[in-house]
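Take one protein record:
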Amino acid sequence: PSAAIGVIGLGVMGSSLCLNLAENASCRVAGFDLSAEKAHEVSERAKREGDLPFEAYSDMEAFVRALVTPRRVILLVPAGKPVDSALEVLGRLLARGDTVIDMGNEWFQLTETRQMRMAEMGIHYMGCGISGGESGARSGPCLMMSGSPDAWANVAPALKAIAARTDDGACVSYLGPGAAGNYVKMVHNGIEYGDMQLIGEAYHLLRAVGGLSNAQIAEVFAKWARGPLASYLVEITASILRTKDSLAPGADLVDMIKDSCGSKGTGKWTVQEAAEQGVAAPTMSAALDARYLSSLISARQRAADRLHFRPAVATRRAFSPMVWLARGALALVCNWMPRLGGFGARMIGWPLVQGGSCLVNDLEDALYSSKLCSYAQGLSLIQAAADAKGWQIELPELARIWKGGCIIRAAVLDEIRVALGRLKSPSDSILLDKNLSDELQVRQAGWRRSVMRAVEAGVPAPALSGSLAYYDALRQPRLPGAALVQAQRDFFGGHTYDDSTGPARTTRSGSPSPHPHAVGSRLRPISSHAAMRGAAPYRANTAIRRSSTAAHAHALSQSAAFSAGIPVPAELGSCDICALYYILT
């Protein structure tokens, strides 16, 4: 035996990680792949990149024999059945005290099941979230480890040697027993979904509302990458928008890409787990929904001919020429003096200026604020799961290791880390930190104007608007709509409700009927109230005939809600009545 560590799976990630280990962990590395051709390619690459100490195998028994004991094996194969197949073979070849590290994007409960199964054989099984993509695997990833403490002590030196590094140290951390590492990586990917969707919505607004070209938008993102929004995703966005298509001379690459987003499951798992833990995650949910909607290309193309946009211009007045003159004047001021122009827009109370520096500055505020909300939701979910499962996850440590190597690395993580250290309770949202809340207060007006622009222009911005609704809901001392929903639940289902001044009560005074007509009932069916008022019966066909008017009113209602700071989601859905009630009150 000569190899100190082995890697199974020599695909894009596995081959890059092998070479990283061979170069930086000061040890010989063995790699295994079922494809002899792929194994040979990685061996040749190791020679080209400095004759690195690496051996490749396509025979599993020979691969295991090449490892010094106690053996350390990293799995980088697709999640699910391929992992189980590899473990079935390894279970016959490994010995007690050996360690297997699964670095795939695996569902955390499967990792826990495998840990118990391998423990019966005396083999340590660790779950590890790895972030950074191909380049991160080669030059330094972010690693989120969990499993046996003894196994961690055995593999820590090698993993710390290959991880990304910042001024605060190696971007690798042991997060505790069980599958905490897989769970944290899953939520990391959910935050990543939200961040990418927010950037996509900002890009859509800059194109559709601001009328900017890809080259101009690239300059905007490049500018943002040098400020508070500095992050890996913002940096690569600027690079992508500058890239030309090699197959279509003169065309921008982004314009030639099919507008359908794929997903591999971690975003869906995050949203599912948020629902399971009872944690609101509207930014990540909106991002997932947006990917599903993007895949409905033929349906969207058919709908474009039927579902017409009707603008709802909130600034239309009797003296419309004066409004347009004011718009033009403010546009000039914004281009020359953005701060003064933004102040003028705030004084008027509605974003008259659609393009120019005002739009860019407002979107910077919206993107920063929504990004904070996305992190807040993800960290709240991790804390809720840690409390439920007994994991001792240090959230400031996550902010530290996410600063380097991973896809969601961003300058704002420094502020988040400090905020997490100042919170009185681990369950508190980072948005309650004084510095971050003060920052949101300053950026709030631009955030609201950005969402209003999207609503008024008919540009879908579910993540931006969902983040704003999340912020607005958190800052409400009382949610009247929630009280109404609970009253409705009790009215038709007898669920009772908590009286704010006393014990649990019911709207139905003990009546078993879902439509209580008995004397003494606190509430009566809506139909009986309508009859008492002499109201006209509901007519569905009238609502259908007036659908375009309804869409117009819907846009105006949303714009009014966002302007007033009322937490109304982008799609009102089944809470139409409650949202209307809230707006009116």
User: Anything to note?
Assistant: The mean pLDDT is 84. DSSP finds 26 helices and twelve strands in the chain. The first helix runs from residue 12 to 24. The first strand starts at residue 5 and ends at 8.
